[in-house]
Amino acid sequence: MLTTAEAAKLLGVSRRTLARYAADGKIFPTVVLPSGHYRWDPDDLRSQRRDARRPRDEG
């Protein structure tokens, strides 16, 4: 599991941007700790990012 800082570095975005994506429901952390901090699975994170970039079916 990665911290938000580590996950953001993996994706090439800032920590704040990744946290904003999560707050906006654009991407979902694997685990939310009792403290409110996120933990990210690298494979799941890449998959979510890839899926978010795909055009959606209009039909």
Automatic annotation (TrEMBL):
Residues 38-59 have a biased composition (Basic and acidic residues). Residues 1-18 form the HTH merR-type domain. Residues 36-59 are annotated as: Disordered. InterPro entries: DNA-bd_dom_put_sf (IPR009061), HTH_17 (IPR041657), MerR-type_HTH_dom (IPR000551), SinI_DNA-bd (IPR010093). PROSITE patterns: HTH_MERR_2. Coiled coil: none annotated. Pfam families: HTH_17. It comes from the Bacteria. This is Helix-turn-helix domain-containing protein. It comes from Pseudonocardia humida. The lineage of its organism: Bacteria, Bacillati, Actinomycetota, Actinomycetes, Pseudonocardiales.
